[in-house]
Specification:
heterodimer, A: mainly alpha, 7 helices, 52% helix, 0% strand, rod-shaped, B: alpha+beta, five-stranded antiparallel beta sheet, 5 helices
Chain lengths: 186, 140
């Protein structure tokens, strides 16, 4: 095969790289190329450890039923509904909620708010300002679960797929470029 | 319930306007304890006041919203406070719960400041804490 092989710039570059690797780091001076290759191999293996899916071969557990899924949900931090909106309308509900809060019937925090408001008008003005700012919520928002990573979106899947295809195409091109002009027909 | 954001500067300003001193157990003591006061009459004060007004935390006459004021009282001078750091592969969150008189205020820390949610009955807040501290149904 040697008679068909012509040295090119690739051999030259590879020789320079090998010389650099073998001479510059002090700890490599007394190591053989096979030691360096072994190190590189082990580093390569170690770098994939975090990428491996250990459960790839395991049997997938059956999907939980709707009832189980409902039970698995984190109980939201709920409060008994206190309809702030009713307090915005002048009349019975507003007076009743202000009076009830001032008497502490809707919890200590509402009591403190009523005490600080001092009058039903300021109480309603406070609620109205919060409503206009979009700060009033009908219920406690459900928490994002932290125990599972977010599912990839279609766009992310598509990008990853394109990335793999392009990387393999570039790899094939590099092999072709490396061999180009290096082989003569026997 | 009420859900609102507060930057560090805005929280500092509200404490200043309400003349509230931070108790040692306050969840705000760590981030705001050493923070300088917003100088009165400065452009910084005008900016903070404008931002607070746009979020309904200051009323149109410049007085603090009574609901925001009550929440700041809870956070600055709680009877007791819990801090929980939640970690998972989906991210992390630091949650403070300030208790007083049977009600609680939830305060989440992030890079921009605080996310406040209130009011919350103490029993429910403690149930939620127990769920997370003991592992609940999800494991840790």
């Amino acid at each position: 095969m040697a008679e068909f092989w012509k040295d090119g710039w690739q051999e030259d570059a590879f020789g320079r790289l090998r010389g650099f690797i073998q001479s510059s780091p002090a700890w490599y001076e007394n190591l053989s190329p096979s030691d360096v290759a072994e190190d590189a191999y082990l580093l390569g293996v170690a770098s994939t450890l975090f990428l491996r899916d250990e459960d790839a071969g395991a049997k997938a557990s059956p999907a939980p039923s709707a009832v189980a899924r409902e039970a698995m949900k984190l109980a939201p931090l709920g409060v008994p509904p206190f309809t702030y909106e009713r307090s915005l309308v002048a009349g019975g509900d507003a007076s009743a909620s202000y009076a009830g809060s001032a008497q502490g019937r809707f919890g200590a925090l509402h009591g403190e708010a009523a005490r600080r408001a001092g009058s039903q008008d300021r109480w309603a003005a406070g609620l109205d300002a919060l409503r206009r700012a979009g700060a009033l919520r009908a219920q406690w928002p459900e928490e994002e679960p932290l125990h599972a990573p977010p599912v990839a979106t279609f766009g992310e899947d598509m990008r990853a797929c394109t990335h793999v295809v392009l990387r393999r195409a570039v790899h094939a091109f590099k092999i072709g470029f490396g061999l180009w002009g290096r082989w003569e027909s026997p | 319930m009420i859900e609102t954001r507060l930057s560090l500067g805005e929280a500092r300003y509200l404490l200043q306007v309400l003349d509230l001193k931070l108790a040692p157990e306050s969840p705000l003591a760590d981030p705001l304890g050493g923070a300088a006061e917003v100088p009165a009459g400065s452009t910084a004060e005008a900016g903070v006041a404008k931002s607070l007004t746009s979020r309904g935390l200051l009323l149109s006459d410049g007085a603090p919203n009574p609901f925001a004021a009550a929440a700041m009282v809870w956070l600055a001078q709680p009877e007791k406070a819990w801090t929980l750091s939640l970690f998972g592969r989906g991210g992390a969150a630091m949650v403070h719960l300030a208790f007083k008189g049977g009600s609680a205020v939830e305060c989440r820390r992030d890079a921009e400041g605080f996310l406040l949610r209130y009011p919350l009955p103490e029993a429910e807040a403690e149930g939620w804490l127990r769920l997370h501290v003991d592992g609940g149904r999800h494991g840790s």
